[in-house]
Amino acid sequence: MCSQAAENEMESRMKPDGEKTEPPGYQRVVLKNASPHHYLKVRLLLEDESTRVSAVELKRFIISCLRGLHGEVGAALEVDVLKYDEETLSALLRVHSRGLVKLWSSLTLQGSYQNQACAFRVLQRDAAYSRSRSRS
Amino acid sequence: MAVFMDLNVLFSADRKRMQSLIETAAHLGFSTVAINYVFEPTAKKKQEVPSPMPINELIGQLPVVQGRSRPIRVLNRLTVVMSEASHFRPNATEYRAFDLLAVQPTTEKLFHTTCMLCDVDIICISVTEKLPFFFKRAPINGAIDRGVVFELSYASALRDTTMRCYTIANSVCLMESCKGKNIILSSAAEKALELRGPYDITNLGVLFGLSDADSKEAVSSTCRAVLLHAETRKTASGIVYTMKSQQEVLEDSAGSEAPESQKRPKTPGEWGFGRGRTHS
Question: Mind telling me which InterPro entries this protein's record contains (chain A) (predicted)?
């Protein structure tokens, strides 16, 4: 996919020559056209903090959130979990810009995960992948 | 910069829970929260209006708002659930202790009177049941002209899917008449996990039928307008207000409370000339 290639390119630009340089505080990204994807950095908060959630379970939970609020149309949205950290339960999601409101609202309105209270905290929302990366 | 507010956090006697609620709100970026005391009068027996607990007694140290480096502001708010016209007493002294005054009318007739006549700041729209009446244009326009706002809360939508249906249906129904003006979105949260961040709520507003700009206003500038409106209720249109001078407080500390009618001057010494604020 072309967008995947663009991401890889950006990633390589971030780390020149494999050397660990301090990333700049900000980076200016100019988008000529509206960006096709939006990136959401989310963290799942659970009532019982010892619960383990694997990446597959998270993806399934996100799809069930979408199905719960928007039905089949919501479940058909293409959502990708690009990165996931099991320790902190934080993930980086990619979604088509058209589906951003649907995904975000279904994450917001989800109040329980396996019969325990939960909350998705959206830490960051961006149209450019590199910016969501660099500020982490 | 927009300042975000959540004007409805349910009161509970559990101090620990209140503390975690307010800390979470500050962490999410809300610079003002209002603790809501719900008062539901019943026909059978006379009930006492709850009195607000002093803020410093409830939470020791106020947490710092994320990104603003100043402590969160905590207000008190009373919600009167009205099923009869007599439940709301316009000049009750018990209401004075609260910063904000809200009513939740349950019938169409009461909705009309609260919109057109009652001196309140917020009208709550029920989100836990199917709307028992249809929103008419006349009372809603009257309320908008008077600067009264309508409140939609989202915490019940997190608990149950049926409630979620009602929340969305009622809010879309309301948007048809008021066109996104004078709406506030608040949480009505009991637990810290039921709170959501201000940008999440802005996005939720889009789902409720608001436009992008209106839904951002629903958590920021409309809330500020409510606070200013509440101030005008206590003062003479926000321009002139009365306050006790320090000496008098010392002299009759055992005496009476605040002056009966704040609009009537008693002695010239009691007048303070206001901060020049007019309500928006």
Answer: Pop5/Rpp14/Rnp2-like, Rnp2-like_sf
Is the predicted pLDDT of residue B256 greater than 80, yes or no? no
Interface check for B219 against chain A (CB to CB < 8 A): the answer is no
Kindly indicate the confidence band of residue B261, based on its pLDDT and cuts at 50, 70 and 90: very low
Question: Beta partners for B78?
Answer: B37, B101
- Scanning every residue of chain B, which has its alpha carbon at the shortest distance from the alpha carbon of A108? B200
Q: Do A121 and B197 touch (CB under 8 A)?
A: yes
Instruction: Report the alpha-carbon distance of residue A96 to residue A30 in Å, rounded.
Output: 19
Question: What are the boundaries of each domain within chain B?
Answer: 4-231, 237-273
The reported pLDDT for the residue numbered A96 is 87
Domains of chain A: 37-134 (3.30.70.3250)
The CATH architecture of the domain made up of B4-231 is Alpha-Beta Barrel (3.20)
Binned at pLDDT 50, 70 and 90, residue A2 comes out as very low
Q: Pick the residue of B21, B160, B196, B211 with the most A CBs within 10 A to test the interface with A by mutation.
A: B196
Which member of B159, B195, B207 has the closest CB to residue A105? B207
pLDDT digits (tens, 9 = 90+) for A9-33: 444 444 445 555 666 677 777 777 7
Residue B76 to residue B86: CA distance in whole angstroms: 23
How many CB pairs below 8 Å do chains A and B form together?
44
Rounded to whole angstroms, the Cα distance separating B251 from B264 reads 22
Q: How far is A3 from chain B (nearest CA, A)?
A: 26
Helices (H), chain B: 15-28, 55-58, 108-116, 137-146, 155-159, 161-178, 198-207, 212-219, 221-234, 246-251
Distance, in Å, from the CA atom of B150 to the CA atom of B137, rounded to the nearest integer, reads 14
Nearest CA in chain A to B193: A119
Q: Does B172 touch chain A (CB under 8 A)?
A: no
Model pLDDT, residue B62: 79
Would strands A116-126 and B100-105 be described as parallel, antiparallel, or unpaired? unpaired
Structure confidence by residue, pLDDT tens digits, B81-127: 887 777 777 777 777 778 888 888 888 888 888 888 878 889 888 88
Contacts with B164 from chain A: Cβ below 8 Å: 69, 109
Minimal-distance CA residue of chain B relative to A68: B161
The two tokens of residue B156 are 């019940």
**What pLDDT band is residue B43 in, cutting at 50, 70 and 90?**
low
